[in-house]
Amino acid sequence: MIELGKMQTLEVKNITSVGVFLNTKDSQKKDKDVLLPKKEVPEGTKVGDEIEVFIYRDFKERIIATTRRPKVILGEVGLLEVVDITSIGAFLDWGLEKDLFLPFKEQTTKLEKGRKYPIGLYIDKSNRLCGTMKIRDFLSSDSPYKENDWVKGVIYSINDKFGAFVAVDNKYEGLIPKKELIGVYAIGDIVDVRVTNVKDDGKLDLSLRDKFYIEIEEDAEIILNKAMEKGGILYLNDYSSPKEIRKELNMSKSAFKRALGRLLKEEKVEFIKGGIKVK
């Protein structure tokens, strides 16, 4: 069976002046063949040869084959550029002569011409290939990644309550929680993120920050809290011994100095004789 939207290996059934007609190896005479245009037919092709092709519809909505693999196939997600925007939808460059149609109802944000967005490929009710920005159902939760792995992804949805949803490798479901979403981001932004947790259902929690940065932030919070417990003053500084720091804060001297440097830079504390004071 010839399948729309997929890469298939089909057999050459007939050779004509306009190209070759293909079908599955076990096809019957009643089964309709599909045309691979002459300009795409490999030199020396004979009846019975097998050719890997992608099946889609041409400008006249006829089923046709191409030896080119598009930037996205059925059931997958790809990063596609907007080449035109109309009142009924947008058109995307997916690597074939005919651009991919993205219906208005399948858009999740205002599009910009020339910008790339994560797009899934599906077959609509009229048996046509279309794009969608609603890609959550295209993503799986069986990634090979573990905690502290760095991965690349694209933001496909932003929720004011939860954060930014990310398609990792265009395959796996991930979330940058709101508290980790530092800066301004938009749908279509590519991000390098660190896996902070693999949930029981396999979905990934992500962070834009490395572990070292977060540790400094957490240590700085510990120093501030301890100082506030003591009336806003903590008698520790760069000259305190590692033993004193460990006893008071349960952290190493190097960790203390890094966190203290952060607090000083942010002007949250200041030096006093023998220690620091919360501003």
From TrEMBL:
Family: Belongs to the CvfB family.
Gene3D superfamilies: Nucleic acid-binding proteins, Winged helix-like DNA-binding domain superfamily/Winged helix DNA-binding domain
Lineage: Bacteria, Bacillati, Bacillota, Tissierellia, Tissierellales
Sequence ranges assigned to domain S1 motif in this UniProt record: 148-209
Species of origin: Keratinibaculum paraultunense
Protein name as annotated: S1 motif domain-containing protein
GO MF term list: nucleic acid binding
InterPro entries linked to this entry: CvfB_fam, CvfB_S1_st, CvfB_WH, NA-bd_OB-fold, S1_domain, WH-like_DNA-bd_sf, WH_DNA-bd_sf
SUPFAM superfamilies in alphabetical order: Nucleic acid-binding proteins, Winged helix' DNA-binding domain
Listed SMART domains: S1
